[in-house]
Structures are given as C-alpha cells and as structure tokens.
Amino acid sequence: MTPPNKVTINKLPTGVPGLDAILGGGLPEFSFNIIAGAPGCGKTTLAHQFIFANATPERPALYFTVLGEPALKMLRYQQQYAFFDPSKLNHSVRFINLSQVLLDQGLAGILAEITKQVAAANPSIVVVDSFRTVVRRVLENEVQIQGFVQELGLLLTSWEATTFLIGEYVESELRDNPIFTVADGLFWLYQNVERNSVVRKLQIMKLRGQNSVPGLHTFRITDAGLQAFSRTLGLAGRKKKRPGAKRLSLGTPELDEMMGGGVPEGDSLLIAGSSGTGKSLLATQFIAAGIREGQPGIVAVFEERPEEYAARAESFGLDLNTPIEAGSLKVIYLRPLDLSVDETMQEILDAIKTMGAKRLVIDSLAGFEMALAPGFRTDFRESLYRMIYSLTGIGVTILSTVEMEESFTELLFSTYSISFLTDDIIRLRYVEIEGELRKVLMVVKMRRGAHSRDIRGYEITPKGVVVGERLTGYDHLITGIPRRANGRVKRK
User: How far apart are CA 70 and CA 299, in angstroms?
Assistant: First the structure.
C-alpha cells in the first residue's frame, strides 16, 4: 500500500518578535489554540498582535468577547501599542460581543452565534475572549462543556480558521479540564513578582505537529507589545573556532606582546581587578583600537550612561562620539532591575546584525548581575556561559570586566567562578613596594597559544594605560606584599 503524501502545514507569523523561533517557525495554520494564564500576564495583547499581523479584508479576524472586558474599553488600551492598526477595524478585524447571548441562551446560543458569524465572514482567525467566562457562568455539566468545545473546534477547523480561546486558568486544571485535550496548541503565560521585580515568562506546553522549544522563556511587554526571548537564544548555528585565527590589538602594544600578538579573534577575554585598577579603561582602549582598524564595536554598560562613558574616554584622549555618530560604535545602556540575560543578548544580537560588530565589551559583570531580576541572578553563571558561547560562536570577540576584592594572601581570578568560560584572563592588582601603592598586571590564562609569564607594572596616564617593564628582584608579588629577592631590586 502506498503511504499517503504528507500534508504541508503552513506556518503563520505571530507578530511577536522571538516567538516564531520558539514555536519552531510560526503558528500552524488552522490550529485550535488556548492562551492561558493569570490576569494581567498579556493574554489579550498576545492575541491582538497575532490578529493584526495576519488579518486581511478577504480573510478577516473575528474577536468574540463574552462577559469579560467590554470591547470599547479593551480597544482603548490596546490602541496604545505600536502593532495596533486602526485602519483594520471593522474590515480586517471585527469585534463581536456575545455577553447577552450567553446570559439568554447559554452554550448552545454561543455556538449558534459563532457559527452564524463565521459562515457570514469566512474568517482566517477566530478569538474567544474570555472563554473561561463561558465555563464559569453557565450551568451546563462537564459532558456538555466538553461537547461544546469539540463542536467548536470541529466547526472552526472545517471553516479553515486559526482559533484562540483565551482563559484564566491555573496549572492544577491541566489534568482534569477537557479543553486542554482538544486543543492543538497550549500557551501558558506567567507573571511572577520577585522581591520588587516583575518577571514574565511563557511556556509552550503543547503544539501538535511542530518541534517547539521546551521550557520557560522570558518575555517583556513594551509599547510595541510582547517580545519573547527563547531560553536557547543564540545557540543555533555556532561555528567551530579555527586554529590560527588572527589576533586583535588591545590598544596597548606591550599588552599585545604579552598575549603573543593580541587577543585571538572570537575569544572571550576577562579583565579582573579591584576598583581603580583600570579595567574599564583597558576595555575602552580595546574598542577604540577596533574602530581604528575598521572593526565596528558594541559596549554594554550597566553602571554609567552612554554620554558619561564617552566623556570619560575623552578624558584619556579617546574619541568615541565620532564613531557613535558614524554608526561604527554603539553604547548600550542596560539598567532595568528586572532584566534577563536573554533580553541583553537579544539587544546585542540585534546590534551586531545591524552594524556588523566584531568587538563587544561588557562593563561590568557585577553591574550586569545587579541589573537582573533576583530569579535570574541565581542562574547567572549558566546564562552568562550561554551568552558568551553564542556570541563568540558567530565570531565576536568579547572583553568582559569583573571587579574583585583585593587579597594579600592569594591571587584570585574571579569572584563569580566563571574563569572556566573565558578563553583568556588578564589580572590587574595593587602591590605595595617600598611604601608605595603600585599597579601590576599579568596574563594568567590563554587557551589558544602561549603567553608571557611576566609580571609588569603599569600606570594610568592622561593617554591611557601605559605598561612598563617586567618587575624583578621580588618574591611573592602576586600576594600584594612582595619581599626582596636576594636583597636586591632589579628592573629590566
């Protein structure tokens, strides 16, 4: 027997940035879907984004409201979003109130009215909001409710309409509610309060015929509507690093020499040191060196605004305003206290795509962590690993700074225990020599090549970081309290 040909399922864009990728390419056309969650988590807005992205005069969207929010009140707020197109109202998008039908005729009346409207309009999309209201306000038993849902699903599928039922449910109902069995797709939206932060997440609990991304994904509601951030964002399409990649200058010739010619392209470099050791300045010199070589760059800052960052660079003779105006440098200021790593990576990926950036500075990891919502800080190390892995995989060279408390008994590399996810580490620290506080630096790690083992002094000057000669004649320099070696001090 010859097997039947596979049916091709068309995928519709959701209109929500990031959500199509989570769904596996879009929403299956003619599918029967439920959007569930607590009040205020974005269910109605999600449905509106979909209908305004797909409805046409020839195949309109019918939006049925039951005993929930009146259509006029709902539209008053929904029109504030950028996706809302008033020219589509009453033509491509039609709103129909069924509240009186429900009160007078129950489920049978609702089904009859939806059937009538669908037959007359031949819609491409049908939304019932809030379907939960239907179930709560009628007296029919569970068997009747299940029959109603099955009839509604069969009706809309036969009319080739993509359908959404919106309802306020709790997860404990997943086992017993017949609605979830009938549905092709089940979208669950969450809104959690973590201390003083609000974090929104979504989960695709069910989607027939498609390989959606499992797990919880962050989303944010802005004046543009919903934007989703996949928990696997950036992991697809990673390239293998090629041996012998070219070296990028750090903007400090002596430091390039210590690293065997510069940082290998596509590496992740960590500069660790205590406050005032020049971490941010070295990062700025790295970005400025790339601009001089025609390599666009991005700086993600968390502790100062872009204009402050550019002004501080100018005080060391580094002009960042010109490349910012020319579009070869972008300074991203990220400071909301309910940020997620996925949002940060999305903004950086968008900037990389727009300007072709080759260098990225994250200044600093401590500021990055503090900008995250409390729940995301718990997974900071794992999320940071995914972010760095993804960005270096597309050829971006990353320089991150991390502040560390100074120890005078040992050499610490990172307070976050993240040295394992960096390819290269430069350590800056203070030492006391002959009653004077001095700065020293060393390259303590390079994965792809040999590096200098020198401990060198350096100074912060009006022209930036200037690296001096190798310090000799001392033991225990890395402790911060060196001792003379053989009673002599030599400088080479």
Answer: 46
Neighbours of 186 (CB within 10 A): 19
The residues, ordered by sequence, that sit 6+ positions from 323 with a Cβ below 8 Å of its Cβ are: 291, 297, 329
293: region left, alpha or beta (phi > 0 left; psi from -120 to 50 alpha): alpha
pLDDT of 287 higher than 90: yes
182: helix, coil or strand?
helix
Which candidate, 272, 303, 296, 292, places its Cα nearest to that of 360? 296
Contact predicate 363/300, CB 8 Å: yes
- Does this model's pTM top 0.85? no
Contact criterion met (CB below 8 Å) for 70 and 97: yes
Pinpoint the alpha helices (H) of 25-82. 43-54, 71-78
Of 71, 70, 148, 76, the C-alpha closest to 112 is 148
Q: Which helix (H) or strand (E) holds 409?
A: none
Q: What tokens appear for 279 in the block?
A: 């971490």
Average pLDDT over residues 110-132: 89
- 305-355 pLDDT, tens digit per residue, is 889 999 999 999 999 999 999 999 999 987 666 677 888 888 888 999 999
Rounded distance, CA 415 to CA 409, Å?
A: 15
pLDDT tens digits, 374-418: 777 777 877 788 888 889 988 999 999 988 876 555 555 555 556
Question: Which amino acid makes up residue 465?
Answer: V
Here the tokens at position 28 are: 């299956």
Beta strands in 195-242 (DSSP E): 197-207, 216-222, 225-229
How many CB atoms sit inside 10 A of residue 47's CB?
23
- What is the rounded (10 degree) CA torsion for 227, 358, 265, 268? -40
Task: Identify the CA nearest to 274 among candidates 441, 436, 454, 435.
Answer: 441
**184 touches 33 (CB < 8 A):** yes
Q: What single letter denotes the amino acid at residue 415? A: T
Q: Which residues contact 205 (CB under 8 A, 6 or more apart)?
A: 174, 186, 187, 188
Three-state DSSP state, 391: helix
H or E element at residue 353: helix 341-355
CA proximity to 269, closest of 292, 254, 243, 287: 287
CA 46 vs CA 25, 117, 186: distances in Å? 17, 23, 13
Phi, psi values for residue 270, rounded to 5°: -110, 125
